[in-house]
TrEMBL record:
CDD domains hit by this protein: HATPase_RsbT-like
Protein source organism: Streptomyces pyxinicus
SMART domains named in the record: HATPase_c
The protein's name in its UniProt record: Anti-sigma regulatory factor
Gene3D superfamilies assigned to the protein according to its UniProt record, in alphabetical order: Histidine kinase-like ATPase, C-terminal domain (3.30.565.10)
């Protein structure tokens, strides 16, 4: 699966609440341009919001890489959240609904995973964390009379 061109491919810093707002806005704009519907746009923005907040709060800041995809059948959007923070020592525990090491709700990682089609966490204690989320535009087949 290859990037579908430079269109809305970008890398954005995550170091402040203002950055989080900008990331949300850019994800929505890119998703809309790629043809995601309103519901899927909102899912992507919600996932991005949670993952970017984790990068900021737990990872001590970092950046997100937003990449448009094209697998030959449909358009997709990949978001890679990267930090060089403390890493996640127990990933299974961190992915559990309701688990938080701080005062959060513990629904960010597990919730974000449910909102996208592909989800991966690459983390190493002491070195940092990269969370990758991918979603694909769902094309509803048109129902033409007499077709198929
Ligand atoms: N980028 C990260 N770096 C280090 N730890 C993280 C990161 N993202 C998540 N975690 C760990 O995973 C836990 C669960 O994350 P999450 O489900 O978003 O809950 P919350 O952010 O509400 O604590 C966090 O409490 C934290 O311990
Ligand atoms: Mg969180």
């Amino acid at each position: 699966m290859r990037p579908s061109g430079p269109d809305c491919a970008t890398s954005l810093p995550i170091g402040s609440d203002a950055d989080l707002a900008w990331v949300r806005q850019q994800v929505r704009q890119c998703a809309a341009r790629l043809g995601f519907g309103l519901v899927q746009q909102t899912k992507l923005v919600t996932a991005a919001s949670e993952l970017a907040r984790n990068t900021l709060v737990h990872g001590g800041g970092g950046h997100v890489e937003i990449t448009p995809l094209d697998n030959g059948r449909t358009q997709g959007l990949r978001m890679c959240f990267v930090d060089s923070g403390p890493g996640i020592h127990d990933l299974e525990l961190a992915m559990t609904d309701g688990y938080t090491s701080g005062g959060g709700l513990g629904l960010g990682l597990s919730g974000a995973k449910r909102l996208v089609h592909e989800f991966a966490v690459d983390t190493e204690p002491g070195r940092g964390t990269t969370v990758t989320a991918v979603a694909w535009v769902a094309h509803v087949p048109s129902s033409r009379p007499g077709a198929g």
